[in-house]
Amino acid sequence: MSRRYPRRSALQLAGAAGLVAVLPRTAPAEEPTCRVLQLVGEAWRDVGGTQSPLALGDGLSAGDRVGTGSDSKVKLLFVDGSALIVGPESEVGVAIFDPQPKEGVALFLLLVGTLRVSVGDSVSWQSYEVQGGTAVASVRATEWAMQVDAKGTAVLCVDGAVHVRPRLTGGTTPEPGMEGVVLQPGEGTDVAPNTAPTPPKTWGAARRDKLLALLTLP
Prior knowledge:
The protein has two helices and 17 strands. By secondary structure, the chain is mainly beta. It has a 17-stranded mixed beta sheet that branches.
């Protein structure tokens, strides 16, 4: 008997978060952009609405979404050395990943849950972003963690520097401070819907460790 994996509606999630609702899959890539490096528990891939379980070594390409179950985590290693760790009960879309020198563009969508990003240093990225429900985090060479829930988006810088700006929806007019903030290691920010990020603040050990524990693999 085939297993039915829990599934959230991508349109509902993307609509609520103000994200790109569709991750189009064009012609099949000759080589996957990333592979499953580590897996704890169960995770699945969604390609054009069709789900299948993930296993170690499986490849994924732009247009794929990855989801995890309760108490599950998965680490994806990309061709440039970048890595994503998807925490429990999370869903992440690989919208764009083009490490070619003339392009250097990567875009991921954190639809719900938690994500840890470690950017590879073998590519001179023109743009490397993660869009959450209410915020966009962008860098060129760093590491950070991100959480999306009903309250908004939280971002914690682990290493390097991270620029965080709000994702404005519903025709919201930008106000002073909405150009964003820059986080240094140990600093975090919270972004409520259509508001400026809170000023960078060093997170207490309890909050920091709770988030990172969700995004740590053996």
